[in-house]
Amino acid sequence: MSALSHPRTGIGNYIRGSLVGLAEAGAGRHEFVAFAAANVRGGPEAIRAALAGVPVELRLLGVPFAHRVRTTWSKVGMPAAERFLGKFDVLHFWEWAYPPQRAGVRATTIHDLVPLRFPDWVPARTRRMHGAKYRHAARTCDVVFANSRFTGDDVVERLGVAPERVRVAYPGVDRRFRQDGARADLGRPYLLAVGTEARKNIETVVAAHALLRTDHALAVAGSDPPSGVVGLGYVTDDELARLYRGADVFVYASRFEGFGIPVVEAMASGIPCVVSSHPSLDEACGDAAIRVDENGAGAIAAGVERALADREQLVSRGLAHAARFTWAGTGRALLAGYEAAN
Question: What is the CATH number of the domain that holds 288?
């Protein structure tokens, strides 16, 4: 749960949404405890704020040098989590750290295998952290959840996890991402892209924008956006919802994803989507997006022009597709996985 002590992005949103879904799916039948060892300076408070209104019990430890503590605890393998939580039926660790336990179902979530597949895309520390988690999960977990069938198949193939131990728990779309509501106004029509890390491929989107025969601006949400765009920096989910609704097209030319939740968020907001043709995005897109060669600026530009022309049809299909992804559905998938492994 320590990811919730930082500004929320994909993994933090998945963790929070999953807890919302679990609480809804298991209401009256199960009790849920959110446990984390977070930095003593502000960590527990940030997690409480992130989980405000979510009906789970909080057990939060404020510790100095929290990252080092979690790393050491994972490696040493003691004390068991029962020392802090008492007896439990399931321990689900969500991130790179892997706390020990004495009994009960052991579960984890793997969001993608980017550090293993594309080590040059991530810092060395990230490769070490996640590499250790992958090996440990493959060896010890009764059930490994993936956020897509694509990632689940990757886990089976690359980590050697038996298929019967792998379950898919698709992410949900937060209710704030909807067609009705306030729209951002950037002073001119705009295209929207999100994310600035290397695999998000923003540089090719910028090149595609230069080829367009429209007067749309290109707005990019994320830290350290490139020059030549409307840089929005880090945005809250509420700001992002307004940005989706105000955009004429959402462009997501990522080279690789675990699932691609921004695609379904944009669809739920009533925006046509132009998305990379990489198969890791197939499940997020369904048949509701314009798919393009993510490495071709010309292909992306042509996709944007097609999306502008076919807006009405794409919006209708996107709304129907996005409606399939709910956090209650995530919660049901997680509970089913726990129960099957028990």
Answer: 3.40.50.2000
